[in-house]
Design goal:
By secondary structure, the chain is of the alpha+beta class. The protein has seven helices and 16 strands.
Length: 257
């Protein structure tokens, strides 16, 4: 297993001078922002990489059609939502059906959403789980001016954060209140704040909450499958190259157009 470098190479091309200045004050063994990176220094202003990146990489908020507000994070040329999608309405105003019954869910060929274990208390924390038919619906799942991230866009972000074997650490939220221990390598240095929301499997129903997070991409693979990304509690990897049944329920992250 690779250890994440303490210097995280993140291009901050649109970082304001105010953010740069705010990150460069004095303390011992801490982090500061500079143009293009968040670095470990002896005279920075932030105690850890997560605090530094949250301050220096924060983008503008975006609001979906239902009024849900998402913070965003700027990573090089990409701007990502900082939390999972929580919308129940397509961008054109049509409702997205909630489907709780497992047999109905696994036989769908149209868009739907659910909460993990059909428990609405999971929504404010983990967002909603969507099948890929909702992701791919032409009525639009993402907020206006945004889109569901493609596998290629995930690949750009993962490479920026050290590659497949290292990027999970800077993507994951820290601690073990939500992530099962060990939350291997977690620093959230990117500000992406990935959480272990689990999934709805078309064979097993609800599984893996606290163990892993799974996110749909907009990238189709074949008639029964589409591409997804996985981050696990026991690894600092950010796994790609996986295909999920389009009836599976995964979380969704969006990227600005």
């Amino acid at each position: 297993m690779l250890t994440m470098n303490k210097t995280i190479q993140l291009s901050l091309g649109i970082l304001s001078m105010l953010a740069i200045t705010a990150c460069n004050s004095n303390s011992e063994d801490s982090y500061r922002c500079a143009t293009g990176l968040c670095e470990l220094v002896s005279n920075g202003n932030y105690d850890n990489a997560e605090e530094c990146q949250l301050a220096c990489n924060a983008g503008a908020e975006v609001t979906d059609i239902d009024g849900n507000v998402y913070g965003t994070v700027i990573l090089s040329t990409q701007e990502w939502t900082r939390s999972n999608l929580d919308v129940v309405t397509y961008r054109n105003g049509d409702p997205i059906p909630e489907v709780q019954d497992f047999t109905t869910w696994k036989n769908l060929t149209t868009g739907a959403w659910c909460h993990y274990e059909n428990n609405s208390a999971n929504g404010p924390i983990y967002g909603r789980l969507y099948n890929w038919y909702a992701v791919n619906d032409p009525r639009g799942l993402a907020p206006e001016g945004w889109h569901v991230a493609s596998d290629a866009e995930w690949a750009v972000m993962v490479e920026l954060l050290g590659g497949t074997n290292a990027a999970g650490g800077p993507l994951k939220s820290t601690g073990t209140s939500l992530w099962m221990a060990p939350n291997e390598g977690a620093t959230n240095a990117s500000g992406f704040s990935a959480l272990p929301g689990g999934k709805r499997d078309s064979n097993l129903d609800f599984v893996n909450q606290s163990e892993s997070g799974s996110w749909w991409t907009s990238s189709d693979q074949s008639i029964p499958f589409a591409k997804l990304r996985i981050i696990e509690h026991g690894s600092d990897a950010a796994l790609g190259g996986y295909y999920g049944d389009k009836n599976n329920g995964y979380a969704v992250r969006c990227v600005r157009d």
